Amino acid sequence: MTDERGRGGGMRITDPQVMRALAHPARIAIVEHLNSTGAAVTATECAELVHLSPSATSYHLRELAKYRLVEQAASRGDGRERVWRSTSTGLRIDTDRNDPETASARAALVDIFLERDMARAREFIARAASEPEDWLETSTLSSHQLLLTVDELRELSEKLNALVDPYRARRRQEDPPAGARRVQLTYMAYPDEAP
Q1: How far apart are CA 52 and CA 59, in angstroms?
Q2: Which end of the chain, C or N, has fewer beta carbons within 10 A?
Q3: Per-residue pLDDT for 141 more than 90?
Q4: Sign of torsion, CA 20 21 27 33?
Q5: Which helix (H) or strand (E) holds 126?
């Protein structure tokens, strides 16, 4: 079972220790920001992003660097500031289903990702009335029950990833089309319990 965040040049994570190191909302937010933008940032800049103090953010960045999820970037200016960047463009979390430690670490990490995704959806619903009409009409929260084989689900996921790939923020941020906004797309596909 895999959980993919970002794809395309993504880092494959199989070590439960790395999963546990990442399993913190601030760390996920930092890695997600760096992976999706390719930016090089300071702890102070990250602090604004995750609403923590620069010293707390600096600690999180050093922990992420220990597990090679981020790395120091070339210094800007006089070299006194530590600048950080991502080491990949996304994450792929793989587990050995026969290893309870890895499965447990993955479950904890994926739970934080799911909480974050659902919080974003709830935030959108809460502000929907203030969104421009065209954005409100084209946004969607939908759920479908499909009847698929394993091969069909694999094909569907591959097609969706190929469809989404050209629109990734990191790829388009240098020259976005007029009116473009960051859009969250969450795709989940999993089998129901056996009948």
Answers
A1: 11
A2: C
A3: no
A4: negative
A5: helix 100-127
Q: How many CA within 13 A on the CB side of residue 157?
A: 16
State both tokens at 25.
Answer: 């909302």
Q: Which among 50, 22, 33 is positioned nearest to 3, based on CA atoms?
A: 22
Residues 136, 140: Cα–Cα separation, whole Å: 8
d(CA 175, CA 171) in angstroms, rounded, equals 9
Judge whether 27 and 64 are in contact, CB under 8 Å. yes
What percent of the chain is predicted at pLDDT more than 90?
64
Of the pLDDT bands very low, low, confident and very high (cuts 50, 70, 90), residue 24 is: very high
Phi/psi of residue 85, each to 5°? -145, 165
Do the bridges between strand 83-86 and strand 11-13 make them parallel or antiparallel, or are there none, so unpaired? unpaired
Distance of CA 111 to the CA centre of its chain: 13
Can you give the pLDDT at residue 7?
45
Please say whether the beta carbons of 99 and 17 come within 8 A. no
Write the burial class of residue 10 (CB in 10 Å: 0-12 exposed, 13-18 middle, 19+ buried).
Answer: middle
- Residue 158 is encoded by which pair of tokens? 């591959």
Are the CB atoms for 54 and 84 separated by under 8 Å?
no
Span between the terminal Cα atoms of the chain, in Å: 21
- List 4's β-bridge partners, or say none: 92
